[in-house]
Amino acid sequence: MGASPRGLFDAVLQLVRRNARPVSAIALTETAAAVPTDTGRAYHTTSYALSGARLDVAKTNALALPAEVTGYVFEKDGASIYALWTTADAGEDATSEVTLALSGTVDARNWELEDGDGAATSANGSLLLTVTSSPIFVVAR
Predict the structure, then answer these.
(1) What range does the domain containing 102 cover?
(2) CA-CA distance, 74 to 90, in Å (whole number)?
(3) Number of domains in the chain
(4) What angle (nearest 5°) sits at the alpha carbon of residue 23, between those of residues 46 and 132?
């Protein structure tokens, strides 16, 4: 795992390409006609989660992740944002269990900015996550 967020953006781009749909040549004339897409959700989530954040190299390098999981830690407004996903080598349907040593308020969201759908369970200062090839964002305050 390197200390560069480039891998996160590559993962989101891979997710976008996997879910991309052809774009209609018809112009969008009003916002009510806009239809949310997986591509738009992926870009929105990454922008929302990481806008103004800075990579925390020390925390990123200290992550004890399984070989098939990639992750980075960012700092933003006093919070640590963990971005985690399984690598492409593990396959699109691969899942992996990850335990992070976190305490306090923890919020886990998938790439669509929805709740982690039960993927996160915190107990005694640790958070157990089921990570897939789609990035999950964990915000610890």
Answers:
(1) 6-140
(2) 24
(3) 1
(4) 35
Q: How far is CA 29 from CA 26, 32, 44, 132, in A?
A: 9, 9, 21, 37
For 141, residues 6+ apart whose C-beta sits below 8 A from its C-beta are 78, 79, 104, 105, 106
Which residues 6+ apart lie within 8 Å of 51 measured at CB?
Answer: none
Residue 1 lies in a domain: no
11: domain CATH number?
2.60.40.1180
Pairing between β-strand 69-76 and β-strand 79-86 as defined by DSSP bridges: antiparallel
Q: Where does residue 114 rank: exposed (0-12), middle (13-18), buried (19+ CB within 10 A)?
A: exposed
What pLDDT digit, counting tens, does each position of 60-104 carry? Answer: 999 989 999 999 999 999 999 999 998 867 677 888 999 999 876
Expressed in angstroms, the distance from the first to the final Cα of the chain is 24
